[in-house]
Specification:
alpha/beta, Rossmann fold, 10 helices, 12 strands, 14% strand, binds guanosine-5'-diphosphate-beta-L-fucopyranose
């Protein structure tokens, strides 16, 4: 990937696509192509084909997706399956039709079976049933992996798939119900601090364990793999460290400087008990994360405060 190659970042307005754009710009890539969802509906095959025939990108980062936390995944099941299938199918097929040199597909750790051995190895794909709350999203992401593999097998396309762990960072979604746990807790603890509320409610039992990677670290890993990885097998991207939701809530409480109590609402779903990534393959390839959770949380909280100041959330 040369500095003046044309690179399309699908989903550049999202947290992940935004971080990939920043990373590429920092490294000196000057020919980035982007379209907002208002300019290009990635669910429309005709529009995606027209865009690829006009722009003819050399490289594609497929970071566009309908995403959300456990509640959104479980509620908008049809959209999570349909939108994600359409976007990835249209982009991967158009990439093949219009001669893209290399494409990276971004999946998710939820593609692995709910009860797969921990840490999750790349070889656990399709070895057991999925976590029900995010099965539609996971099925769409598995289809994306299989599309990349099939276009590689049949047409020799250099399409690679990476599986990020749970992500957070600059430009996250802080919606009270539809967001992921980390941004949801930042908001809830902040609002409780402002309101001097005696306690903050955290969903579930607090016992599930999750791993969190700062989005700018993910972006650095994606660019690294785009430059150095050409194989069919997927690659996990994470830190290799996890903590319980209770520990996460305590850490967020400390970063936000909230002084009340934490209570758990066990009527809300826990989701998968644990999904720690095995990152030995990524480490062997030569990449390791650099932002630790506490440091990333401080940056994420600053981002939340900035966003809150700019727009009413
Ligand atoms: O981040 P999260 O929604 O996604 O939830 P998943 C993680 C855990 O945090 C669950 C608990 O055990 C939740 O019950 N939790 C506690 C909360 N309080 C909250 C809260 O206020 N909001 C949220 N959202 N959770 C998603 C998948 O699963 O992970 C997606 O649904 C995707 O498909 C994504 O893979 C990375 O880790 O459970």
């Amino acid at each position: 990937m040369q500095l003046n190659d044309k690179i399309y970042i699908a989903g550049h307005r999202g947290m992940v696509g935004g971080a990939i754009s920043r990373r590429l710009k920092t490294l000196g890539y000057v020919n980035l192509v982007t379209r907002s969802s208002a300019e290009l509906d990635l669910r429309s095959q005709a529009d995606v084909n027209e865009f690829f025939s006009k722009e003819k990108p050399d490289y594609v980062f497929l970071a566009a997706a309908k995403v959300g936390g456990i509640h959104a995944n479980n509620t908008y099941r049809a959209e999570f399956l349909y939108d994600n299938l359409m976007m990835e199918t249209n982009i991967i097929h158009a990439a093949w039709k219009h001669g893209v040199k290399k494409l990276m597909f971004l999946g998710s750790s939820c593609i692995y079976p709910k009860m797969a051995p921990q840490p999750l190895q790349e070889s656990s794909l399709l070895t057991g049933p999925l976590e029900p709350t995010n099965e539609p999203y996971a099925i769409a992401k598995i289809a994306g992996i299989k599309l990349c593999e099939a276009y590689r097998d049949q047409y020799g396309c250099n399409y690679i798939s990476v599986m990020p762990t749970n992500l957070y960072g600059i430009g996250d979604n802080y919606h009270p119900e539809n967001s992921h746990v980390l941004p949801a807790l930042i908001r809830r603890f902040h609002e409780a601090k402002e309101a001097k509320a005696p306690s903050v409610t955290v969903w579930g039992s607090g016992t599930p364990k999750r791993e969190f990677l700062f989005a700018d670290d993910l972006a650095a890993a994606c660019v690294f793999l785009m430059l150095h990885y050409d194989e069919k097998e997927l690659v996990n991207i994470g830190t290799g460290e996890d903590l319980s939701i209770r520990e996460l809530a305590e850490t967020v409480k400390e970063v936000v400087c909230y002084e009340g109590d934490i209570v758990f609402d066990t009527s809300k779903p826990d989701g998968t008990p644990r999904k720690l990534m095995d990152v030995s393959k990524l480490h062997k390839l030569g990449w390791k994360h650099s932002v630790e959770l506490k440091e990333g949380l401080v940056q994420a909280y600053a981002d939340f405060l900035h966003k809150k100041h700019m727009v009413a959330l």
